Amino acid sequence: MKLFSNRGRRVDLGPYPLERLPRLSDPRARPPGLGAVSPALPSEIGSPGPLSCGDALGAYAELFDQQVDGEVAPRAPVPDDPLERSRNLKAGLYFLDADMAGCALVPPGAWRVTPDQRPGHRFAVVILSAFTRGDGHPRPGTEWVDGTRREAAELRTAELAVITASYIRNLGFAARAHTPTDSGVDPGRVALQAGLVRIVGGRLRAPYLRDG
Predict the structure, then answer these.
(1) Residues linked to residue 105 through DSSP beta bridges, in sequence order
(2) Which residues does 9 contact at the CB level (< 8 Å), separation at least 6?
Protein backbone atom coordinates (compact mmCIF):
# COMPACT_ATOMS: atom_id res chain seq x y z
CA MET A 1 0.00 0.00 0.00
CA LYS A 2 1.45 3.36 -1.04
CA LEU A 3 1.14 5.98 1.69
CA PHE A 4 3.02 8.87 0.11
CA SER A 5 3.29 9.94 -3.53
CA ASN A 6 5.98 12.14 -5.09
CA ARG A 7 3.89 12.90 -8.19
CA GLY A 8 3.83 16.64 -8.77
CA ARG A 9 6.02 17.21 -5.73
CA ARG A 10 8.40 20.21 -5.78
CA VAL A 11 12.05 19.17 -5.98
CA ASP A 12 13.04 21.31 -2.98
CA LEU A 13 10.71 19.31 -0.71
CA GLY A 14 12.81 16.18 -1.13
CA PRO A 15 11.79 12.51 -0.93
CA TYR A 16 10.47 12.61 2.66
CA PRO A 17 7.41 14.58 3.86
CA LEU A 18 9.37 16.84 6.20
CA GLU A 19 6.83 19.62 5.63
CA ARG A 20 4.32 17.57 7.65
CA LEU A 21 6.40 17.79 10.81
CA PRO A 22 5.59 20.42 13.48
CA ARG A 23 7.65 23.59 13.33
CA LEU A 24 8.62 26.20 15.91
CA SER A 25 6.79 29.47 15.38
CA ASP A 26 10.06 31.39 15.87
CA PRO A 27 13.11 30.17 13.88
CA ARG A 28 15.33 31.45 16.70
CA ALA A 29 13.53 29.42 19.37
CA ARG A 30 15.32 26.62 21.20
CA PRO A 31 14.25 23.11 20.09
CA PRO A 32 12.31 21.18 22.75
CA GLY A 33 14.22 18.69 24.87
CA LEU A 34 17.60 20.33 24.27
CA GLY A 35 19.83 20.62 27.33
CA ALA A 36 23.11 22.43 27.76
CA VAL A 37 24.76 20.11 25.22
CA SER A 38 23.14 18.51 22.19
CA PRO A 39 23.20 14.70 22.06
CA ALA A 40 25.97 12.94 20.15
CA LEU A 41 25.52 11.99 16.51
CA PRO A 42 24.51 8.38 15.76
CA SER A 43 27.33 5.87 15.73
CA GLU A 44 27.71 2.59 13.90
CA ILE A 45 27.61 -0.79 15.60
CA GLY A 46 30.73 -2.79 14.82
CA SER A 47 34.29 -1.94 13.89
CA PRO A 48 36.04 -1.96 10.49
CA GLY A 49 37.71 -5.23 9.56
CA PRO A 50 41.10 -5.71 7.90
CA LEU A 51 39.57 -5.40 4.41
CA SER A 52 37.47 -2.28 5.07
CA CYS A 53 37.60 0.72 2.77
CA GLY A 54 38.11 3.10 5.70
CA ASP A 55 41.58 4.22 4.66
CA ALA A 56 40.37 5.17 1.18
CA LEU A 57 37.42 7.11 2.63
CA GLY A 58 39.77 9.03 4.90
CA ALA A 59 41.96 10.04 1.97
CA TYR A 60 39.00 11.52 0.10
CA ALA A 61 37.79 13.30 3.25
CA GLU A 62 41.14 15.09 3.40
CA LEU A 63 40.68 16.24 -0.21
CA PHE A 64 37.26 17.73 0.57
CA ASP A 65 38.61 19.45 3.69
CA GLN A 66 41.04 21.33 1.48
CA GLN A 67 38.10 22.88 -0.40
CA VAL A 68 35.84 24.11 2.41
CA ASP A 69 36.39 27.78 1.57
CA GLY A 70 37.36 29.97 -1.37
CA GLU A 71 36.98 33.27 -3.18
CA VAL A 72 33.59 34.94 -3.52
CA ALA A 73 32.37 35.93 -6.98
CA PRO A 74 30.55 39.20 -7.76
CA ARG A 75 26.94 39.23 -6.61
CA ALA A 76 24.57 37.42 -8.97
CA PRO A 77 20.96 38.53 -9.64
CA VAL A 78 19.27 36.25 -7.11
CA PRO A 79 15.91 36.74 -5.33
CA ASP A 80 15.93 38.80 -2.14
CA ASP A 81 13.46 36.43 -0.48
CA PRO A 82 15.34 34.07 1.90
CA LEU A 83 12.64 31.44 1.39
CA GLU A 84 13.22 31.37 -2.37
CA ARG A 85 16.96 31.15 -1.80
CA SER A 86 16.53 28.23 0.60
CA ARG A 87 14.28 26.42 -1.86
CA ASN A 88 16.92 26.81 -4.56
CA LEU A 89 19.66 25.42 -2.31
CA LYS A 90 17.57 22.46 -1.14
CA ALA A 91 16.47 21.66 -4.69
CA GLY A 92 20.11 21.54 -5.75
CA LEU A 93 20.97 19.19 -2.90
CA TYR A 94 18.07 16.86 -3.64
CA PHE A 95 19.08 16.85 -7.30
CA LEU A 96 22.46 15.59 -6.05
CA ASP A 97 20.64 12.86 -4.05
CA ALA A 98 20.97 14.25 -0.54
CA ASP A 99 18.76 12.29 1.84
CA MET A 100 17.55 15.36 3.72
CA ALA A 101 18.37 19.08 3.59
CA GLY A 102 17.25 22.07 5.59
CA CYS A 103 18.08 25.70 6.27
CA ALA A 104 18.21 27.48 9.61
CA LEU A 105 19.55 30.40 11.55
CA VAL A 106 22.80 29.43 13.27
CA PRO A 107 22.10 29.44 17.03
CA PRO A 108 24.86 31.02 19.16
CA GLY A 109 25.36 27.77 21.07
CA ALA A 110 26.19 25.85 17.88
CA TRP A 111 29.62 27.41 17.42
CA ARG A 112 32.63 25.35 18.50
CA VAL A 113 35.13 28.15 17.93
CA THR A 114 35.78 31.45 19.67
CA PRO A 115 33.93 34.56 18.43
CA ASP A 116 37.04 35.92 16.69
CA GLN A 117 37.31 32.68 14.68
CA ARG A 118 33.70 32.65 13.47
CA PRO A 119 33.08 33.61 9.85
CA GLY A 120 30.07 35.72 10.83
CA HIS A 121 27.51 33.69 8.93
CA ARG A 122 23.90 33.91 10.13
CA PHE A 123 22.48 30.98 8.20
CA ALA A 124 23.24 27.28 7.85
CA VAL A 125 22.39 24.85 5.09
CA VAL A 126 22.23 21.46 6.81
CA ILE A 127 22.74 18.18 4.94
CA LEU A 128 21.82 14.76 6.30
CA SER A 129 23.14 11.53 4.79
CA ALA A 130 21.76 8.19 5.95
CA PHE A 131 23.90 5.18 6.70
CA THR A 132 23.63 2.39 4.15
CA ARG A 133 21.73 -0.56 5.55
CA GLY A 134 23.07 -4.00 6.32
CA ASP A 135 20.88 -7.03 6.90
CA GLY A 136 23.36 -8.94 9.04
CA HIS A 137 24.10 -11.51 6.35
CA PRO A 138 27.43 -11.77 4.48
CA ARG A 139 27.28 -10.37 0.94
CA PRO A 140 29.92 -9.69 -1.70
CA GLY A 141 31.73 -6.60 -0.45
CA THR A 142 30.35 -6.78 3.08
CA GLU A 143 33.85 -6.89 4.54
CA TRP A 144 34.61 -3.61 2.74
CA VAL A 145 31.68 -1.61 4.14
CA ASP A 146 30.95 -3.06 7.58
CA GLY A 147 32.25 -0.68 10.21
CA THR A 148 32.55 2.19 7.71
CA ARG A 149 28.90 3.08 7.10
CA ARG A 150 29.04 6.23 9.23
CA GLU A 151 32.36 7.22 7.65
CA ALA A 152 30.89 6.73 4.17
CA ALA A 153 27.84 8.84 5.05
CA GLU A 154 30.11 11.55 6.42
CA LEU A 155 32.18 11.54 3.24
CA ARG A 156 29.04 11.94 1.13
CA THR A 157 27.93 14.80 3.36
CA ALA A 158 31.33 16.50 3.03
CA GLU A 159 31.13 16.25 -0.76
CA LEU A 160 27.69 17.86 -0.83
CA ALA A 161 28.73 20.55 1.65
CA VAL A 162 31.77 21.54 -0.41
CA ILE A 163 29.71 21.65 -3.62
CA THR A 164 26.98 23.74 -2.00
CA ALA A 165 29.38 26.21 -0.38
CA SER A 166 31.13 26.67 -3.72
CA TYR A 167 27.78 27.30 -5.41
CA ILE A 168 26.84 29.94 -2.82
CA ARG A 169 30.20 31.68 -3.27
CA ASN A 170 29.66 31.70 -7.05
CA LEU A 171 26.37 33.52 -6.38
CA GLY A 172 28.33 36.23 -4.60
CA PHE A 173 27.89 35.28 -0.93
CA ALA A 174 30.56 34.18 1.52
CA ALA A 175 30.12 30.51 2.46
CA ARG A 176 32.23 27.99 4.31
CA ALA A 177 31.58 24.25 4.28
CA HIS A 178 31.67 22.53 7.67
CA THR A 179 32.54 18.87 7.16
CA PRO A 180 32.50 16.08 9.76
CA THR A 181 36.31 16.28 9.94
CA ASP A 182 36.71 20.08 9.66
CA SER A 183 33.89 21.94 11.36
CA GLY A 184 33.48 25.04 13.48
CA VAL A 185 29.89 24.20 14.45
CA ASP A 186 28.06 21.42 16.27
CA PRO A 187 26.31 19.55 13.43
CA GLY A 188 23.68 18.06 15.72
CA ARG A 189 22.75 21.50 17.03
CA VAL A 190 22.23 23.05 13.60
CA ALA A 191 20.38 19.94 12.43
CA LEU A 192 18.00 20.37 15.36
CA GLN A 193 17.46 24.03 14.47
CA ALA A 194 16.80 23.11 10.84
CA GLY A 195 14.15 20.58 11.88
CA LEU A 196 15.94 17.60 10.33
CA VAL A 197 16.34 15.72 13.61
CA ARG A 198 14.69 15.64 17.01
CA ILE A 199 15.66 14.39 20.45
CA VAL A 200 14.04 11.07 21.37
CA GLY A 201 15.12 9.31 24.54
CA GLY A 202 18.21 11.51 24.83
CA ARG A 203 19.34 10.65 21.29
CA LEU A 204 19.22 12.44 17.96
CA ARG A 205 16.74 10.80 15.61
CA ALA A 206 15.83 11.69 12.04
CA PRO A 207 12.12 11.22 11.26
CA TYR A 208 11.40 8.63 8.54
CA LEU A 209 14.89 7.08 8.89
CA ARG A 210 16.26 4.30 11.06
CA ASP A 211 19.12 4.99 13.45
CA GLY A 212 22.07 6.46 11.61
Answers:
(1) 123
(2) none
Tell me how crowded residue 173 is: count the other CB atoms within 10 A of its CB.
17
For the packed helices 82-95 and 149-170, what is the interaxial angle rounded to 10 degrees?
A: 130
CA distances from 75 to 61, 70, 105, 171, 174 (A): 30, 15, 21, 6, 10
- Predicted pLDDT of residue 29: 92
Q: For residue 199, what are the CA distances in angstroms to 20, 112, 132, 162, 192? A: 17, 20, 22, 27, 8
**Which residues have a Cβ under 8 Å from the Cβ of 124 and sit 6 or more positions away?**
103, 104, 105, 106, 110, 185, 190, 193, 194
What value does the mean pLDDT of the chain take?
A: 89
The number of beta carbons lying within 10 Å of the beta carbon of residue 107 is: 21
* Each residue's pLDDT tens digit, 15-27: 999 999 988 889 8
